[in-house]
Amino acid sequence: MRFPLIFAIFLIVPMLEIAAFVVIGGRIGVAATLAIVVLTALVGSILLRVQGFGLLRRIQEETDQGRVPKREVVHGAMILFAGLLLLLPGFVTDAVGFTLFIPAIRDAIWGFVSSRLKVRFNVGIDPDDLRRPRPPGDGKTIDLDPDDFSSAGSAESPWRDDPKQRH
């Protein structure tokens, strides 16, 4: 299964790109073809920046509300991939890259992939951890109130609390 996919990516996609360059370059000329390639890279970098910052804002909103930003992280990966595709010279990769910048397309792709993806993970204590020997400790725990404890950093530390003392 993996070999045909890698074969398609590294052999068929470049052949499609070359064919697209020949056909489009033959119709509109070399200079216009190269201008389009440069323009799509510029537009792709702008889209990557705009959608990336918007996505970071949505991730922050989700985490502020105590939710895991699953959709946003997946969209972020697809936006990054779309930006990389637009930076590569070629019309086929540009078409796929521009398509991935459409949120509805990303949702459809994620819906398709997530329905076929099974992720398993365990949260909690591993039973074997309870059987492993622990390093010896003194076993003393001191419970302090916030008023009973203070932390004074080094005067040489660049992270000290007093900004007036900084160089």
TrEMBL record:
Entry keyword annotation includes Transmembrane helix: yes
Region (Disordered): 128-167
TM segment ranges: 30-52, 73-92
Comp. bias (Basic and acidic residues): 128-143, 158-167
The keyword Isomerase belongs to this UniProt entry's keyword annotation: no
Keywords: Membrane, Transmembrane, Transmembrane helix
One GO cellular component term: membrane
Protein name (Swiss-Prot/TrEMBL): Membrane protein FxsA
Organism from which the protein derives: Nitratireductor mangrovi
